[in-house]
Amino acid sequence: MGRPSVQKQRKAEVLDAFLTCASKYGIEGATLERIASEAGLKRPLIRHHLGNRDDMVKALSEYVITGINSSVEDMRAALEGYPSAKDFIDALYAPESETDPRLNIVFQSLTHSADNYPGLRQELIAAMQSLFDLASEVMQRNHPNATKAECDIVAQGVIGLYLTMDSLSPLSPPSDWAHSSYFASLRLANSLLETS
């Protein structure tokens, strides 16, 4: 009986190394040498597991987008019984809901490289749109007298505050920054009460 294939495991390790390198050096700075060093593999094995540069970026973007979509769906499921705007904001800032900070950093890096990879821009926008849509749906449910445009504006602000804090997490910023961002999000959501 032959040894079980480690191809799937190695591909995941290489993808994780690419994610780490892209979070440190950007998409273009994540060279084969850096990825190979991070993965503890020889350079030719990186291409063996992920393919050419376009294939590598596609695999990385799929991984990041899947992570974002998974987070959005988890949040949607968690809010099913607790649909208030405060519950939504609590879910964003809850310690147990923290996402891998590399995802947001690499998402930003992918946005800067989107012009170099056909179709990537649309995929990134679709992933972020799902998060904005969820936030807007929550605002609309809680403030039925507010217009959709008003709910969209608040949703953009709430998500923008959250993404800013998430992108700063590798710096281990002072805890009062997250605290202030959380309360700014609540205040923004409560501004819809004035329109109701």
TrEMBL record:
<dbReference type="Pfam" id="PF00440">
    <property type="entry name" value="TetR_N"/>
</dbReference>
<dbReference type="GO" id="GO:0003677">
    <property type="term" value="F:DNA binding"/>
</dbReference>
<keyword id="KW-0238">DNA-binding</keyword>
<feature type="domain" description="HTH tetR-type">
    <location>
        <begin position="8"/>
        <end position="68"/>
    </location>
</feature>
<protein>
    <submittedName>
        <fullName>HTH-type transcriptional regulator BetI</fullName>
    </submittedName>
</protein>
<feature type="DNA-binding region" description="H-T-H motif">
    <location>
        <begin position="31"/>
        <end position="50"/>
    </location>
</feature>
<dbReference type="InterPro" id="IPR009057">
    <property type="entry name" value="Homeodomain-like_sf"/>
</dbReference>
<dbReference type="InterPro" id="IPR001647">
    <property type="entry name" value="HTH_TetR"/>
</dbReference>
